[in-house]
Amino acid sequence: MLLNIAEERWPIAGTFTISRGSKTEAHVVTVRLEDAGHVGHGECVPYPRYEETVPQVMSALEAVRGRIEAGVTRDELASILSPHAARNALDCALWDLAAKTSGRPVWQLAGLPAPKSAVTAYTLSLDAPEAMGEAAARAAGRPLLKLKLGREGDADRLKLIRRNAPSSRLIVDANEGWTPDNLAAMLSACADVGVELVEQPLPAGNDEALRTVSRAVTVCADESAHGLDTLDQLIGKYDAINIKLDKTGGLTPAIALARAARERDLDIMVGCMLATSLAMAPAFLLSPLAEVIDLDGPLLLKQDRVPGIRFDGSLMQPPPPDLWG
């Protein structure tokens, strides 16, 4: 087996801003595995919030090149790589390679339902209230909008967005930007405009207030949720979990996490970092298990891979086999 590791930069259409800061490009790492004339691909996004950088991830993969090229299996990945971005890219490349070698799609190999077209959320980047209201007006035809919040003025943002997108379903991502002191007021403001779900309102590690706060919206763990090892810590605080392959360490542990979350009566959101269709494709296979799909990364880029996933507005189609899986 031959391994190729590469970094790529994909410009964003504008600026993408959340409570922690802004970015103008998606900086990703790709893995390419070739074996017996078949090729598998994977993509990951090293995320500074989780203390990962592109150089670190590339070095981690390079350090186990010999083990990989000797024929590592998915079941062995946990013993050679930490369960984050590097392991995600490698796990997904191994799934893709297995599909290409066997002639069977990954969803069949993994025992998952056949993927069907599904609506993805479309993200409105954090901005001044008036600017987000204008962005909502431009996106008012989309059925599901995800609002990046987490700064002063969020209540005004919510009112303007709802006024300008009266028919869209709304979900919110505060990216750890609220506090125990304003939590109840912000959840109430969300309920007032019909927000259905709020992601990670409080900082991970400072979210105990969620056990007692009264709320009329679903609260979803993101930064507080990683893999099976963190799942039981969420019970009693969160109603849902956002599963991202860059946090779980690939599709293999993500499937196990989704099934375990179901057993604990947690709703599932399948999400993404800002990346191309190659990163969305394996995550999309979890869509039949999820109440909310947030895989709009390619829609926020200036351009996507070719071939890429087709989006009919916000209706996301299953990934083409030439892309992945």
Q: Can you count the beta strands?
A: 14
Instruction: Examine the secondary-structure arrangement and name the CATH architecture of the largest domain.
Output: Alpha-Beta Barrel
Write down the overall geometry. globular
Number of helices: 11
CATH class of the largest domain: Alpha Beta
- Structure class: alpha/beta
Number of domains: 2
Question: Percent range for helical residues?
Answer: 25-40%
Looking at CATH, the homologous superfamily of the largest domain is Enolase-like C-terminal domain
How far from one another are the termini? 18 Å
Strand order of the largest sheet: 5-6-7-8-9-10-11-12
Query: Strand-residue fraction?
Result: 15-25%
Biggest sheet descriptor: 8 strands, parallel
Radius of gyration over C-alpha positions, nearest whole angstrom = 19 Å
CATH-derived topology of the largest domain: TIM Barrel
Q: Could you list the spans in which at least 5 consecutive residues all have pLDDT below 50?
A: none
What's the order of the H and E elements?
EEEHHHHEEHEHEHEEHEHHEHEEE
Question: Averaging pLDDT over every residue, what do you get?
Answer: 96
